[in-house]
Design a protein that fits this description.
The protein has 157 residues and is α/β, with parallel strands linked by helices. It contains five helices and eight strands; from the N terminus they run βαββββαβββααα. Strands 1-4-3-2 form a four-stranded mixed sheet, covered by helices on one side. A hairpin with a 5-residue loop joins strand 7 (106-108) and strand 8. The model has no long low-confidence stretch (mean pLDDT 97).
């Protein structure tokens, strides 16, 4: 077991979410599904309680904790993409599977977990600083899904 693992709270669909992530992102897998040994506040003995999974190389535990807590943008997965095709593939998988678009490369999956689908060109522009970062930032602020060509154009001025 890893020393540090991200725990993501779900109402009841941790296993479905983990299996979706494993099917969508490379270096992702479902390692184990653990069932409750007894009744608990949001479930019964034998229900899926936790799911051990990896999403894009990051070890996680999905906890079926019930409705006590909701997902917010305060936690998100950020997925770095190489080009528009990869950006489109992940964005469309999340949004097209019951998710929701947001601004600046953010979207939510159908379980309410937030994702940032971020092309490397945008990250590189921000790291460059100065006018290049400002132009890329201004272009990004007008977008939902990031348009790689528009970011590259903005970087060049």
């Amino acid at each position: 077991m890893a020393k540090n693992t991200i725990c993501v709270w779900y109402d009841k669909d941790a296993e479905a979410a983990a299996r979706f992530y494993a099917a969508t992102f490379p270096d992702s897998t479902v390692h184990a599904v653990h069932r409750a040994p007894g009744d608990y506040p949001s479930g019964k003995k034998g229900d899926v309680l936790t799911v051990d999974f990896t999403v894009a190389g990051v070890r996680c535990i999905g906890l079926n904790g019930g409705t006590a807590f909701k997902q917010t943008e305060a936690f998100s997965f950020q997925i770095a993409t190489e080009d528009q095709a990869e950006t489109d593939r992940y964005w469309n998988a999340i949004v097209g599977n019951g998710g929701q678009e947001s601004m600046c490369g953010w979207c939510k999956d159908k379980w309410g977990v937030s994702w940032q689908i971020t092309p490397r060109t945008l990250t590189e522009a921000m790291a460059a600083g100065g006018d290049e970062a400002k132009r890329a930032f201004d272009a990004m602020m007008t977008m939902k899904k990031i348009d790689v060509a528009a970011i590259d154009k903005a970087r060049r001025g």
